[in-house]
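ugh ok so i messed up the first submission bc i forgot one of the chains. this is the corrected input, ALL of the components this time, i swear. 850 residues overall. if the numbers dont match what u have on ur side tell me asap before i send this to the collaborators (the ones from the other lab, u know who)
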Amino acid sequence: MKRLKGTNEEIARILAEEQVALTQQNITVEATVREIIQDVSQRGDEALREYTKAFDGIEITDFRLSETAIQSAYNTIEPDVLAALKHAAANIESYHKQQMETGFEDQPVDGVIRGQLVRPIERVGVYVPGGTAAYPSSVLMNVIPAKIAGVKEIIMITPPQQTFNPAILVAADLAGVDQIFQVGGAQGVAALAYGTQTIPKVDKITGPGNIYVATAKKEVFGQVGIDMIAGPSEIGVIADETANPAYVVADLLSQAEHDVLARAILVTNSEKLADAVEIELEKQLKQLPRENIARPSVENNGRIIIAKDKGSMFALMNLVAPEHLEIAMENAYDYLDQVENAGSIFLGHYTSEPIGDYYAGTNHVLPTTATSRFSSALGVYDFIKRIQYTQYSKAAIHEAEKDITTLAYSEGLQAHAKAIEIRKD
Amino acid sequence: MKRLKGTNEEIARILAEEQVALTQQNITVEATVREIIQDVSQRGDEALREYTKAFDGIEITDFRLSETAIQSAYNTIEPDVLAALKHAAANIESYHKQQMETGFEDQPVDGVIRGQLVRPIERVGVYVPGGTAAYPSSVLMNVIPAKIAGVKEIIMITPPQQTFNPAILVAADLAGVDQIFQVGGAQGVAALAYGTQTIPKVDKITGPGNIYVATAKKEVFGQVGIDMIAGPSEIGVIADETANPAYVVADLLSQAEHDVLARAILVTNSEKLADAVEIELEKQLKQLPRENIARPSVENNGRIIIAKDKGSMFALMNLVAPEHLEIAMENAYDYLDQVENAGSIFLGHYTSEPIGDYYAGTNHVLPTTATSRFSSALGVYDFIKRIQYTQYSKAAIHEAEKDITTLAYSEGLQAHAKAIEIRKD
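and heres the new structure output, hopefully the right one now
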């Protein structure tokens, strides 16, 4: 892992440069994706069938997955996996229920009512990748918050397979997906955004996917809402001399095994710990089945940042703004108020990050590449809308007339003023 | 205005087609904008000076607007405008304070703590257009919610002018802007996203602008957060036979005067009202100073939709999902529960939409082109982040071990499982 050491300003400059490089856009597939989207929006199912044959090598007559296929997945899923999914779903539900919002109303002066309604988004589409990146846990993480928000209809799409992973179908069913369609890629995203003869048009699309899926989501944004464009996974660990190097390394590697582009960043005020981590890293890497992914990941993107004191550890990690943040310190809870930017925080020596990936109930769909500076984990708040309302009585509007028309005239918008003045009579 | 009449399904189909046309992307300026952004991100202030000279025709040595310039605006602003801005600011503040969120924490089982922190975004950039589109009311609407959220630093940028509208500078000062820089266009957006020698890099950019500004915001999204890409203004009016046609028309025109692309849509169950509105429309249009804008707007984009009953009026308007929604009916408040999609609702015969533009305190930065299906008015919630946290004791992680490792192994992520298992010792 590359070691960074210096003043906070020097390290901050390097982190800022690295962050810009991370978010530079990949525009290579844009033209292809735009063509697919336009075609699907015009020709619907016919276009979908052609792209699915071309890209997935499968001829589909009916995109809709039958109720029988979903129910038979319960017969083939491993019982342990089924039990674990049920426990995880219960935890995700109990955590996210706390995010539910209600509206408000006030009457600031006589004759005036102001308020805010909270309404669920009506129909949501969830993209679930195929092949090895098909994670049942992600199905739960995307669907359960939507369900709690009160979304009326949840449509899932996933690329066609000869044999679907039963855990994916069971997770969808447990979480409350209403319909599943076997279609993927940019064509699947286009189908959700514009609707086809068989696939209903949705209001918002969530869920991860490859570069085609991510680019398609960006392109259809505006026509529908989208969640976020996720980058490679990241873990930041703040550790002092009390940390166990073996635990720290195991957690760094749990992110590094995802992807050669994943980032594992340790910030510590202890050079002794940094040295121990590097020795332990080599030891654990050799034992790892996915060493071929984790090794280039830590070698290219791994960082050990040496901070001069505890305050600097937090200041520098706030610049990293990691997706996952572990605080491997005694009394970690007491340092919560020093965290400004992070997707999800794991406190103390025993709260290993994979607890959050699968089990604790917090969401694992998180802002990457320093976007936790301005965005948050997927949550119930992503599946609702807030609608303002106002009511003025005749007396109240006359009371406010002078101020309103003064501003309207000063902005040169006479019809705005007129709409108030006409109500004098 | 074009009249639509038929079954709900027939009208729904037409509305869906119109909505797709509205959101089709304008990609003509993308290449230019990308070049400007890259140049500014690399050369900073030097590039800014060149673009400002080329596009605004002004040579700038110092982009920062002096404290003296801001204070002297108080001497030139009309006293009535100053008073109105102060009243509006107070209303905006009292409404938006109700949107403040707090975190939560629970202890679902022994040894487990889960929670959510709420943190303000650290630094926000607000874009304020120049020329005739410089609205002091928009400055208040963008800045006050950020301030309430607790944003530490608010940077405003606006294109350079020979003489700035004093109301813009006063509004910025009243609302709590920390620094103002005189730079606009895609180059200004790039400066906020990447930072230059004099302009600080921000975490999120809000505020309206022309096609260059909107495209630039879309391009830098990811590097920074953005609010929304606003389209032309819209008003939807639901009116029954109790509505006053003169009021309805005045309100339709208050949006139509904004822009030839603005949309004014009336949904009514009364053909008698529809006829009266068309007669009144011609009468009021002729008296309007901005007739040259409002007339093509209503002729091209105006719609009168005839609904067969009250339920259909709301069902069809929910498909329109208008930015502004007026309910011009007796007991309008009682119909709130029928609204699913709208940015801001104005209730009853006296609550004219311009009340919300300037005064009531609800936000006037609203989702357009049917995006209220999945998004909301600008609010305090746009200037905060929610950060999850979890703490598991040693006993609690052992309790959860089997479920977590079962899921990790089933997804083929061995390092995830290992990070849990290593904590046995």
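quick check: The two ends of chain A are 76 Å apart (CA to CA). that seems consistent at least. The first strand of chain A starts at residue 2 and ends at 5.
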